Amino acid sequence: MSVFIAYGSNLLSGPVTASQAFSAVVKDLRDRGLIVNRISRLWSSKAWPNSDDPPYVNAVLQIATDLQPAELMSLLHDLERQAGRVRDGRLNAPRVLDLDLIAFGEAVMHGEKGLILPHPRAAERAFVMGPLAEIAPDWVHPVLHRTATELYKAATIGRDAYPLEADAS
Length: 169
Fold this sequence. Notes:
Layout lengths: L2 E7 L8 H14 L3 E5 L3 E3 L10 E9 L4 H14 L15 E7 L4 E2 L5 E2 L8 H10 L12 H7 L7 E2 L6
Antiparallel strand pairs: 1-4, 1-5, 2-4, 3-4, 3-8, 6-7
């Protein structure tokens, strides 16, 4: 089963680099029992929708877990809180850590237990689909029935996204 998590950050803490911050998140996921199978490179893009905000660093991880989707989402929110993220209701606000559950196998959920799967806006975002296509180009979106590569090419938001030079692994 393919489970994908998107990572994003545009507010780093102190002298921590994007690569160090991402490595810490991967370590935290592993420490909590998740098996990280694949990791994209770090990508960069302008903040969306407000390009005056600091640019984002993004990546996608493919994991294996025995957790159910709601349990995994709760774990991701715990990691965000520990990193200092405050959910104040503002959409797309700058954040120190953003972890989104993009897909959980073939699961399609429409708000059950507070979850919508696959992620309702990921397919539109090049800064998500680019890293996902990098690690799983033939993954097929369970609703749109298009591959990650096709979705990346068709994405309309974050078209400026590009992979950074350093490999995240």
